[in-house]
Amino acid sequence: MALARNELSKEAVDRVMAQAKAAGATIVRPAQDVFWGGYSGYFADPDGHLWEVAWNPFFPVNADGSLALPD
Fold first, then answer.
1. Which of 15, 43, 58, 62 has the greatest number of beta carbons closer than 10 A?
2. What is the CA radius of gyration of the chain?
C-alpha cells in the first residue's frame, strides 16, 4: 500500500519530492513521466511508509487542492 498526494503541476511534484528528501525521506523512484500520461515519483518516509506524489492531468483539482467535480 502507498499513500498518495496529488499536486497541481509537475513542478509541484518535484518540490514535494525535494522537501521529502530534505526531511529525511528515501527517494524510491524519482518523479518522471508515466505511461498513463501523468507524472509521479515515490519516496519512503523515515518510518518506512511509501508515498506517491503525482500530477494527473485527467484528475481536475481546484487551486485549493479540492477535487473539481463536474456540474
1. 43
2. 12
CATH number at residue 33: 3.10.180.10
Written as one letter, the residue type at 20 is A
Q: What does the alpha-carbon distance between residue 31 and residue 66 come to, in Å, rounded to a whole number?
A: 22
**Domain count of the chain?**
1
What is the value of pTM for the model shown?
Answer: 0.86
Q: Return d(Cα 49, Cα 33) in angstroms, integer.
A: 23
Confidence of residue 11 (pLDDT cuts 50, 70, 90): very high
23 vs 35: CA distance, rounded Å? 29
| Residue 63 domain-assigned (yes or no) | no
